[in-house]
Write a structure and sequence with these properties.
This protein has 53 residues and is α+β, with helices and mostly antiparallel strands. The chain is built from 2 helices and 2 strands.
Length: 53
């Protein structure tokens, strides 16, 4: 859905904060085959470097 109507540069990030390992692994398996999922983050760590820059 996020990539329809010409939005090929849009991506989704899975946020795993507060979830157990089994649930996170399930989300990663599902997302791995879906175009548009680009990253996994725990407690927004993926945003730290852009924020610092």
């Amino acid at each position: 859905m996020v990539r329809r109507d010409g939005r090929e540069q849009v991506g989704c990030i899975i946020l795993g904060c507060g979830s157990n390992e089994q649930k996170v692994m399930k989300w990663l398996r599902v997302a791995a085959v879906v175009p548009g999922f680009i990253e996994f983050a725990v407690r927004r760590t993926s945003f730290w470097e852009p924020l610092v820059a």
